[in-house]
Amino acid sequence: MKVMAFVGSPRRNGNTDRIVRAICKGARESGHEVDLYHLAEMNNKGCIACDACQLAKVDFCSIDDELTTLMPKIAKADCLIVGTPIYMLQVSGVTKHFLDRLRPFLKPDLTAKHLPGKKYITVTCSGAPATAFSHVTEYLNQFFGYFRMESAGHIVAGSLHERDDIIRQSDILEEAEDMGKKIN
Ligand SMILES: Cc1cc2nc3c(=O)[nH]c(=O)nc-3n(C[C@H](O)[C@H](O)[C@H](O)COP(=O)(O)O)c2cc1C
């Protein structure tokens, strides 16, 4: 299977990055082809509401950036992994930009194209205890449900302040690796 993983934290080797990479490690061990992207380091602009994707003026998106070049690959992927830190009670800004930019995968009648039936995994990391932000996982489930994608698991991690705090929650990293191994 082709797996594409997106990290929505600007912190390389931060908590979100480490959990997403643990999922990727497990997925590679199961023989999947995995590509990892750091959204904050990409030329990844916000949706400009030009509606070109809805008016079928373009294959995917009119914005000339790295994310648009990835869209055909997203269309062919079997599983998307999206990891985000909690910023001001929600997904991070770059993560939200990424989610907004998936509008080309919705038809004007709001039915989905390319993505239905594919798998997704979400990861959230917060400073507050994990239980504080289950609503963000619910939001992401609602989001991917809109595209008729199927959950292959989620990680909700909390009490993470310093970049490497997750190292002291080895059970979560093990759970993540296991989740990656089980993608099918
Ligand atoms: C701009 C900003 C806003 C944040 N907002 C919240 C918040 O609303 N609630 C919370 O629990 N943690 C918040 N945090 C803490 C991060 O969610 C937490 O440290 C997370 O583990 C960072 O993930 P990372 O290591 O992958 O960057 C915030 C951090 C930043 C930089």
Automatic annotation (TrEMBL):
Which superkingdom heads the taxonomic lineage of this protein's source? Bacteria
A Pfam family the protein falls into: FMN_red
Q: Which UniProt keywords apply?
A: Flavoprotein, FMN
Keyword Mitochondrion applies? no
Molecular function terms in GO for this entry? Answer: oxidoreductase activity
InterPro entries per UniProt: Flavoprotein-like_sf (IPR029039), FMN_Rdtase-like_dom (IPR005025), ISF_SsuE-like (IPR051796)
> What positions does the domain NADPH-dependent FMN reductase-like occupy?
1-154
| Listed transmembrane segments | none
Q: Does the keyword Magnesium apply?
A: no
Protein name per the record: Multimeric flavodoxin WrbA
What phylogenetic lineage does the species belong to?
Bacteria, Bacillati, Bacillota, Negativicutes, Selenomonadales
